[in-house]
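Contributing new complexes? Match this layout with zinc ion.
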Amino acid sequence: MRITQISVFLSNSLGRLESVCKTLADAAVNINTITILESGDYGIVRMIVDKPSQAREALQAAGFSCKEVEVLAVEVADEPGALYKLLEKTKNAGVNLEYMYAMTKPSGQNPLMIMSFKDIALAEKILG
Amino acid sequence: MKQIWNDIHGQFHPFSALDFLPREKMRTLQSQRLREIVALSYAKVPLYRARMDGLGVKPQDIKSIDDISKLPFMQKTDLRDTYPDGLFAVEKKEIVRLHASSGTTGKPIVVAYTDEDLKIWDSSIIRCLKMYGVQSSDVVQNCYGYGLFTGGLGLHSGAQALGCTVIPASGGNTERQLMLMKDLGTTVFASTPSYFMHLIEEGKKRGIDFKKLPLRIGVFGGEPSSEGMRKFIAENTNVKFCDIYGLSEIVGPGVGGECEAGGGIHILEDNFYPEIVDPETGEVLPDGQEGELVLSTLTKRAMPILRYRTHDITSIVSEPCPCGRTMRRISRISKRSDDMLIIRGVNVFPSQIEIGIGRVEEATPNFRIIREMKNDMESLTVEVEIQDKYYGDSIAQIEAIRKKIQASIMNIINIRVEVSIVEANAIPRSEGKIKRVYDNRPKEAK
Ligand SMILES: [Zn+2]
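Output block (do not edit by hand):
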């Protein structure tokens, strides 16, 4: 399933992430999952939220540099080899995975992996 | 008479006639004016008399404008040390206006004008405004600070004397500036270039497209302008970038201006005589060679300033200008001798770093330089904001931009500096003169 991720560029200084979270809280946006990639003096925050366009508007109005990015949310069975089988398919099709992180789901369901591909359309076809 | 001339939509005004004086006539006028101002200064100002006596120079030794090099230099400290009125050359009753610098420490510098001085100042500003193509029908929003600073009242008075509609907006209050600009139909905007850039950015956030406004001319001064600034303003507005040069010690804005040809700043040299000297030795350099600009007021009587060291680094262009004006030009000023940083033994000017950044298309002109000590070595970090569309989802892409900026700067200054990409709007925006260098070194290292 194709979903929208919010990516925010942040300087690595105290209180910036808190400020992102406050902006989203004030806009009544729920964060489903969040991951931070840091590189020295800055980082990129990636989030899956319940209302992506409201989240982007609120963050931009607060002066943050942020983007909506299309990613795939792929259900992966909670058993050995499940992720391997999936990645084998994309490898054989020559679709390169750029990054991936897990999204927590309520109990009783399979975990969701959030995956970024350059060729998202092709990846979506393969992973169905 | 003045009104009739003002209604002609040309670049000329009776005052502009002096812009086109044949060179020989200009030299005769300069020589005559120099003799008068030196005689006045020697007679009335103890500092000039003492300095000239010290060099063994008498007023009668000054015969032509070339003799100006016999006179002593003046430094900013001379203006401070003679606070408040030690350089005044006329009786108090002749003085009609005082201005003062906004120095952050100690006593300010006070400058004085007679009624005639103010008229000459107005005429100088009118000559500059006409170079830019400003008409009496223009609406001028003047954002230079009003008050003690020469910028606000100086430009106001000149623009009003030309017959323009002047909005004395002064600096600050972004919201109101944008409102005035939209509602009053501003066509000419006067401010520092960095403040105008700040308004463009603030306007964007509020959905104001500067290209749809009637704004057509920017009278920019108060700080050196860079290619990056010019490019940003050209991309986001229909405003023609017009440099106005001036400094309070000499008169205020209106010492010179950039004509249509855009090849430098014409100095109104019948009033303000320019020389270029070697900043180290003080030796006068020939036209074309880069050095420190030295200015002398040839007509200002309340407080004549002779051979003032401006610390602005430029060169005199004496080739004829395509616009037909005979006044010599100076190249655009991008360096100040007192801005120079010595990093690990290498001379670095903030403007060179700016040029390096300007060559990278992903970067914006918003940057600052941080000096600090790292492992007993002085290090320079350049913080840069990049264009919004490049704050992407990929660290690799941002790292590539960072390295590109680093290489571009190194290409110019030949030493390696740290480059750090920061969030949009992280660099403090100035409402006056932009602050580029932040010195975070401990006191003992400075
Ligand atoms: Zn010209």
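Reviewers usually confirm one structural detail per submission. For this one: Residues 95 and 119 of chain A are 7 Å apart (CA to CA).
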